[in-house]
Amino acid sequence: MKMTFRWYGEKDTIPLNYIKQIPNMSGVVTAVYDVPVGEVWQESKIARLKEHCNKANLEMKVIESVPVHEDIKLGKPTRDKLIANYAQTIRNLGKYGVKCICYNFMPVFDWLRTDLKKVNPDGSTCLCYNHDTLLKLDPKNLHLPGWDESYTTDELNGLLNEYKGISHEQLFDNLIYFLNGIMPACDETGINMAIHPDDPPWDMFGLPRIIVDSNSYDKLFKAVPNKHNGITFCTGSLGAGRFNDLPTMAGKYCNRIFFAHIRQLKYTNDLDFAEAGHLTKNGDLDIYGVVKQLVKNGFDGYVRPDHGRNIWGEDGKPGYGLYDRALGACYLNGLFEAIEKECK
Ligand code: DNO
Question: Active site includes 143?
Answer without folding.
Answer: no
